[in-house]
């Protein structure tokens, strides 16, 4: 197993934990508009638990895949809520695409991003435009895949993809929710971006610093 890949993932999980902790209140307020207000606390709990589990796994010699699978399991167990299950599934799917043996390359990272999106849509059944984190995750994975295929450096490709996710998350303000808890108060959420799309964009933006 590649220890250095796992060690870098531990740093990335730490960056996610910090980014989410710093946005906890804002995410909670966004979720209170048309949801139940727990998105900030759920994301903080999940990210904390994932960072701890990932660090323990890597310290025990786990490779990239095992580190992320264990982090994902910890996230969904501790976070609760819809987004907890979805983030657990995303980390697990991303990890599975990386494998445990070698340091993950560009292809695996793009494949991991696509696998994470597929895991969310399989589990939650949302499509782009439903006002969920899928609205940010799909353009993220597509932009990353395209930029890497065009030969962009990884850091630049990730940054373009994070920008696409941020723009897409902001654009969710314009539409009513069509799925999930917020669907019930769909019209009330018009003018406010989807909390899950915002937290997705925030996380991938924070990860830009890790390349
Ligand atoms: P809960 O709705 O259970 O309280 P959270 O508040 O943590 O969970 O997460 C809410 C976010 O989850 C939403 O803003 C949305 O982005 C995302 N979400 C909800 N349902 C789905 C779904 N079916 N597919 C994808 N994302 C979803
Ligand atoms: Mg909620
Ligand atoms: Mg809830």
Automatic annotation (TrEMBL):
Source organism superkingdom: Bacteria
| Domain DhaL stretches | 7-209
Query: Signal peptide span per the entry?
Result: none
**Mind telling me what this protein is named?**
Dihydroxyacetone kinase family protein
Query: What is the organism of origin for this protein?
Result: Streptomyces hainanensis
Included range, full protein: 361 to 571 of 571
């Amino acid at each position: 197993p590649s220890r250095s890949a796992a060690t870098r993932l531990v740093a990335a999980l730490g960056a996610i934990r910090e980014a989410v902790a710093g946005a906890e209140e804002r995410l909670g307020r966004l979720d209170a508009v048309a949801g139940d207000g727990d998105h900030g606390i759920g994301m903080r709990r999940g990210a904390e638990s994932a960072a701890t589990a990932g660090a323990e796994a890597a310290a025990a010699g786990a490779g990239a895949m095992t580190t992320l699978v264990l982090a994902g399991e910890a996230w969904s167990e501790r976070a609760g809520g819809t987004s907890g299950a979805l983030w657990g599934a995303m980390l697990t799917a991303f990890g599975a695409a990386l494998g445990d043996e070698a340091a993950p390359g560009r292809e695996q990272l793009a494949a991991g991003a696509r696998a994470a999106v597929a895991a969310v849509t399989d589990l939650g059944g949302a499509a782009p435009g439903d006002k969920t984190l899928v609205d940010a995750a799909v353009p993220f994975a597509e932009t990353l895949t395209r930029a890497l295929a065009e030969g962009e450096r990884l850091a630049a490709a990730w940054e373009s993809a994070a920008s696409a996710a941020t723009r897409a998350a902001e654009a969710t303000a314009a539409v009513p929710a069509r799925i999930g808890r917020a669907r019930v108060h769909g019209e009330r959420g018009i003018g406010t971006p989807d909390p899950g799309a915002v937290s997705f964009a925030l996380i991938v933006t924070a990860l830009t610093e890790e390349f």
